[in-house]
Design goal:
mainly alpha
């Protein structure tokens, strides 16, 4: 029984990648819509500058109008986002308010 409990706890700690590129989806649970969080996520000169630079260098946007999530820090096409949206049938949820 102890091994089973340890395995269950460990499985909750591991965040699986959603695809073969190693991209993961994160849900913001606290302060997701706060001014502080929006300033942090969307300031291209702020602490996430390297992530913004990577996305912009690929000709993509951090917050494209077609995206169902709050921010994209990996260069992503509309087609790739549709694949991600299709994961909803597997229990994943996407929200413009709290997913990055």
């Amino acid at each position: 029984m102890d091994d089973w409990m340890r395995a269950m706890q460990h499985s909750k700690e591991v965040v699986p990648a959603l695809n073969s590129y190693g991209v993961s989806l994160f849900k913001l649970t606290r302060m997701a819509t706060s001014t502080f969080m929006n300033n942090l996520l969307f300031d291209p000169q702020g602490p996430l500058k390297a992530l913004h630079d990577r996305v912009l260098a690929a000709g993509c946007q951090v917050d494209p109008a077609w995206s169902p999530v709050k921010a994209l820090f990996v260069p992503t096409t509309g087609e790739q986002m549709q694949e991600l949206a299709d994961l909803a049938v597997q229990g994943y949820e996407l929200s413009k308010e709290d997913h990055i």
